[in-house]
Design brief:
Length: about 900
């Protein structure tokens, strides 16, 4: 009577929200109060990951698997003032593979610290009108006292449960907490329906429900952080020590030259354990033996992890004449169905086995199949082969295993300031759907926020998926990094395949290039040393059309490369090609392309060396950087990156050393230095170029030309300000007439790079002109006058925009790097919509052009820019150009 008239209201705080039962106690319906739901933010410190059970909680009693539906512990859920229950429901089909094994423990995650929790096991479902209302029968209850905050706990069951696989098994935790506590943990979700998200206020029959259906919000569509730990023992499908002779059901085949000769038999003369082993002894002289010992049928369970293990030894080991094999087949009467899974051969360098270690062969690929295993002895009057203690062990299927397959979007090399957006291919190797994190980071960390956690929910059973990192990774410091991908999955049984990394080199800006386009040996500033046979032709220019080589692969860049031929000499050549004197920055890399011919068969020596002393190798100052003798790349170009950071702040020579007589051929092209540059001396003034006119440029008649000369006074120890006179003279080539002439005296010109501006020049007549620039420094100060002079050739033609252009051309920002103004010049053969955008390193647009331009030559002037790195995008119809501009002050 009372139960029909009194409403019982039981308050519950869940994640800071008060929920209530409204109605009578027996058939209460869960309804939330009419308030806005709020979810407590996961208590995860910056730089850490959501919480998984550590490996120390598994393996306590040998090989253990954990059965579960959850991902990492994420939400901290408050259940203040009421002893609620949470549970997972393991179904018969999931338990069946482990029939006969024991559940020995339960793992569960704890939020806030509490005094006590109770672990319960229930058997079967309470079903009413085809609806699961909870578990049917409690079979175990264990109490754990003193639960610590924010960790996983393991409760070893007082009575392990032997799995039958006949009924469902509910694994539950009873919680009790006081106000403002959040002890219950569940994952990010989504929930695995009917299995992962069960909840009850008091654990009584009929009171259970799934939180995903409770209407609490998306945060309640999740799985309980509860796991059942199974102590897994392998099943021996075969265990044979030959103690009773050749076992019943085993087959011996004598297929050699003498079918009545020696074959597999039993011996007591040489064994691993016990009194007997199997042996195949050598036969008569000249008799080829092909002897087979085959097991009975072996049935590998579906989904099982199976291994073959055996011990072996050899008599007269070094007389071995042919490989011996272990093979797998499907028909013991037809050896043609057997494939090799293992081989042993003295001729391949295999050591004397001497019973020392077992041979272990993975048979998991044969799960669900009936197979036969054969030991095949093949030899002619050679060795004896002993085999003993053969075992085939089957383990139940691994419930959880996700592996990293590959990392995409990570190039070998990028420049400092560049970004990558990696993607990772992952594969779920089991049939269970998985919820977890693909974690990406770099070693060392490229950014202040070093970890990127990419959730996957779910990754379906047997699925291969590509997961893209949720944001770009920018490298602001040069160096060598590893991009690491790691599958963070609770209960993953195979840890070895969870991680993969790829190396990426982040270089300083490009500071030195040599493409060998001068077609001269040695190139300007380089030196060649002939230290071996003096008749050696040494290094050569290569275009891909030479008659001294059969290689026709064109150079990587431009029209020329360098090469060393396989010259037929009186004795070994030792030929060096040595760079100019270079200075190495704090972080520096040398890169180049190489190609070979007749390598490595005829190679004697190829390598890259470095000297911090003399450029002449005969002086003995060189040490080896890279031995390339085994690096063959016949008739195709390959890329090499060499880290020179060990030589930071040194001045060095880099030598390419070839040794050989009628040996191999070596080709080199596209040499580049990042963080390395010509070694200069204090007060080595240099004319770097004109700020907005490049060699070979065509200038319109009547166009005003801003004459700005870029001058460098090196910023190196021992230098400083100095006085200079800068002269600029423009000569008409046809008659040598001086059409423009100015000079400027600069006192105490500071260290660094600056642009000196003259008055404007306006060309009024067509023709060819030479702009001659000379910097003169106070007497005796400048140690190198070679770079004090610059000649720039220009042509004056039609008026601006009227030059006839027959095909599109584009000249990137010049100069680059620039101390002030830089100019882009391009030609349009027809009227074209031109879009140009210049952005800074923060992604902000600092210059923009968007207009239709007439046919002819056009320029875009980039001035008044702050020091820094900029990126441009140029689009003129089908012509698209990208690039970088560096502004220095």
């Amino acid at each position: 009577m009372w139960r029909n008239t009194i409403a019982v209201v039981i308050g519950l705080t869940l994640c800071g929200v008060t929920l209530a039962y409204v109605g009578d106690v027996d058939d209460a319906i869960l309804k939330p109060d009419k308030v806005e739901f709020t979810v407590r933010v996961p208590k995860v410190k910056e730089g850490t990951v959501p919480v998984y059970p550590g490996s120390e909680l598994l393996g306590v009693k040998g090989t253990e698997y954990d059965l579960h539906y959850d991902g990492p512990a994420w939400y901290w859920v408050g259940v203040s003032g009421w002893p609620v229950h949470t549970a997972i429901r393991l179904t018969p089909d999931e338990l069946a593979p482990y029939a006969g094994q024991e559940i020995v423990a339960v793992l569960f995650a704890v939020g806030d610290e509490i005094d006590t929790a109770i672990v319960k096991l229930y058997l079967g479902d309470d079903i009413v009108n085809d609806t699961i209302r909870g578990p049917r029968e409690q079979i175990l209850e264990d109490t754990i006292i003193g639960l610590h905050r924010g960790v996983w706990h393991r409760v070893d069951l007082s009575t392990p449960y032997v799995i039958t696989g006949a009924e469902t098994l509910w694994v539950a935790v009873r919680w009790f907490s006081t106000a403002d506590q959040y002890p219950v943990r569940w994952d990010w979700g989504p929930a695995v329906p009917y299995k992962g998200d069960w909840f009850s206020w008091d654990g009584t029959p009929g009171s259970w429900f799934e939180i995903r259906l409770a209407g609490w919000g998306d945060w309640a569509n999740a799985n309980m952080n509860i796991r059942a730990v199974v102590d897994v023992e392998g099943v021996e499908l075969i265990s044979e020590g030959f103690e009773s002779g050749m076992p019943e059901g085993w087959t011996v085949l004598n297929l050699g030259d003498e079918t009545e000769g020696n074959t597999w038999t039993i011996t007591g003369d040489n064994v691993h354990t016990g009194d007997s082993a199997a042996v195949c002894e050598y036969g008569a002289s000249g008799e080829f033996q092909d002897e087979w010992m085959i097991t009975p049928v072996v049935s590998i369970p579906v989904g099982a992890t199976a291994t073959l293990e055996f011990y072996h030894d050899m008599g007269f080991w070094s007389w071995d004449t042919d490989p011996n094999y272990v093979r797998i087949g499907t028909d013991p009467t037809d050896t043609g169905t057997f494939t090799v899974v293992w081989d042993y051969y003295y001729g391949d360098g295999d050591p004397d086995p001497d019973w020392e270690a077992p041979v272990v062969i993975d048979l998991s690929a044969y799960a669900g199949q009936n197979i036969y295993i054969a030991w095949q002895y093949r030899s002619t009057w050679a060795e004896d082969w002993y085999v003993d203690d053969i075992k085939v062990i089957s383990m139940p299927p691994v419930p959880h295993d996700v592996r990293v397959v590959d990392i995409l979007g990570v190039p070998d090399m990028i420049m400092v300031g560049d970004s990558i957006l990696p993607s990772v291919i992952v594969e779920n190797l089991t049939t269970n759907d998985e919820y977890g994190i693909l974690r990406i980071w770099t070693e060392p960390h490229a950014e202040a926020s070093p970890y990127y956690d990419n959730w996957f929910w779910p990754l379906y059973g047997q699925q291969v998926d590509t997961i893209q990192n949720y944001e770009y990774i920018t490298f602001n410091t040069p160096g060598t990094y590893k991009v690491v991908a790691y599958v963070d999955l609770g209960g993953d049984m195979i840890a070895e395949n969870d991680r993969l990394d790829k190396e990426i080199v982040v270089t300083p800006p490009l500071t030195y290039e040599e493409g060998f386009e001068s077609a001269v040996i040695p190139p300007e500033g380089w030196q060649q040393y002939i230290l071996g046979d003096p008749t050696s032709p040494g290094w050569r220019v290569y275009t891909g059309t030479e008659d001294w080589t059969i290689v026709t692969t064109p150079p990587v860049e431009g029209n020329y490369a360098i090469a060393h031929n396989d010259d037929n000499l009186d004795y070994e050549a030792e030929d060096w090609l040595v760079t100019p004197r270079m200075v190495v920055g704090d972080v520096a890399f040398l890169t180049f392309y190489y190609m070979t011919n007749y390598a490595p068969t005829y190679t004697e020596y190829r390598g890259v060396w470095i000297s911090t002393g003399s450029p002449n190798p005969a002086d003995g100052d060189y040490v080896e950087l890279l031995d390339m003798s085994d690096m063959a790349s016949d008739e195709e170009w390959s890329y090499v990156i060499i880290d020179l950071s060990e030589y930071a702040n040194d001045t060095v020579y880099i030598g390419f050393k070839y040794v050989g007589d009628w040996a191999d051929e070596w080709f080199i092209d596209g040499l580049a230095g990042y963080g390395i540059s010509y070694a200069v001396m204090p007060y080595d003034f240099a004319v770097m170029g004109l700020s907005n006119i490049v060699d070979g440029q065509e200038l319109p008649i009547g166009s005003t030309q801003n004459i700005g000369v870029v001058v460098q006074n090196p910023v190196i120890p021992g230098g400083g300000p100095a006085d200079m006179r800068l002269t600029c003279k423009i000569v008409r080539d046809a008659d040598g007439a001086i059409v423009w002439n100015e000079y400027k005296d600069i006192f105490d010109f500071p260290r660094g790079v600056d642009t000196i501006w003259f008055n404007d020049w306006t060309p009024v007549e067509s023709g060819s002109y030479t702009i001659n620039i000379v910097v003169n420094v106070e007497e005796g100060v400048d140690p190198n006058l070679m770079n004090n002079i610059l000649a720039v050739n220009v042509t004056v033609g039609a008026k601006m925009g009227e030059q006839e252009v027959t095909r599109f051309f584009f000249h990137g920002p010049t100069p680059n790097p620039a101390a002030g103004t830089s100019v882009i010049e391009f030609g349009l053969p027809k009227a074209t919509q031109v879009e140009f955008r210049l952005i800074d390193i923060a992604g902000r647009t600092v210059r923009e052009v968007n207009e239709t331009m007439a046919p002819g030559v056009h320029t875009i002037t980039l001035d008044n820019l702050a020091t820094g790195v900029y990126f441009y995008h140029f689009d003129a119809g089908s012509e698209v150009r990208y690039g970088k501009l560096v502004i220095v002050q």
